[in-house]
Amino acid sequence: MTTRRVLIDANAGSPFRVSASGVDAAGAQFDSLIFDANQPPIRIYLNSWMRVPVPGGGLQLATWAAGPSYPAVPAGTHPMFLTMWWQPNFASPASDGNRGASPLGTTPCFTNDATFGQGAGGAVGDGIFAGISFVKSTVLPSGQTVTFPDDTHIGLVLLRNYQ
Amino acid sequence: MTLFAIYNERGEIDQAIKHFDPDGYDKLLDDRGLQYVVKAQSEGLPRPGLWYVDVTAKELRERPRLATSVNKTVIKAGGNDSALITGIPREARVQIVAAGQVLHAFEKLDADQLEIAIPVPCVYSVTIDVWPYQTWRTTIEAL
Question: pLDDT band at A145, cuts 50/70/90?
Fold first, then answer.
């Protein structure tokens, strides 16, 4: 049986296919292909960080901000993204692992307790990446509202398909 | 790679983008009415704590450092000893945190010095913010 790992066929629906070792490219399933010219390749479009304001007044609100734009992508495809977030400039002893003098950074998440809601992430839609933050301000026992010295920062990589 | 730094009216960078496919991206930003500076062949993203945009020159600039200092960072607990922070610009934003909790916060400090005494053994972290200076930080430990 012939096993052709690289197939270039001007008449086929998929003109250029490269298969995994031991698999014939002609009849290979998608997960046995290293490359298929019918599948628009996904590549890094940009990487970025952006700010999202922290809600004021100790409120349990999520805030969001419009981040990087992305252009129209090939039909049937959607941009993808990877993200994490951090809260800079919030000082506390370095031994405090959760809120250290170094900026807190973490993958998308959301936690809540009596004092601090924490979490952030993002989404893509309507031509933009939107950063979302659940990090909120706090209220001291005296009743004074304290906001973070800086907004929540969201780091992201945006990927898109190319034809 | 091309850097796009999108900034607000104060010159704070709201977004920094390292673009791998920059052709036409300025049009997308223009359509949204955003202000930005572009730097070609940029390898990294500017750290927001270190960089800002001079809105008049429309150029990326390094944030200057404050001339603030502290006379000691270890004191005796109990209130008879203290640390003195000097060189604080008027109307600076000051925050004092201990054990993950905000103890004191001043949106606009009406002083250029801050004396800190700590009643019990612990560590206070102090941050001072004045735009566009870099955030000044110190920790004061009471033994």
Answer: low
Is residue B18 within 8 angstroms of chain A, CB to CB? yes
Contact A69 B19 (CB under 8 A): no
> Which residues 67-96 of B are in CB contact (within 8 Å) with A?
93, 95
Mean per-residue pLDDT of chain B: 91
ipTM above 0.85, yes or no: no
Give the span between the Cα atoms of B38 and B23, in whole angstroms.
Answer: 12
Per DSSP, B12 falls in state -
Cβ–Cβ below 8 Å for A91 and B127 = yes
A101 — pLDDT class (breaks 50, 70, 90) = very low
Q: How far is A92 from chain B (nearest CA, A)?
A: 5
> Closest by alpha carbon to A21, among A39, A9, A38, A6?
A6
Count of positions (residues) in chain A: 163
Domain range summary for chain A, segments of one domain joined by +:
6-36, 42-161
Domains along chain B? 2-62 (no CATH), 69-142 (2.60.40.1930)
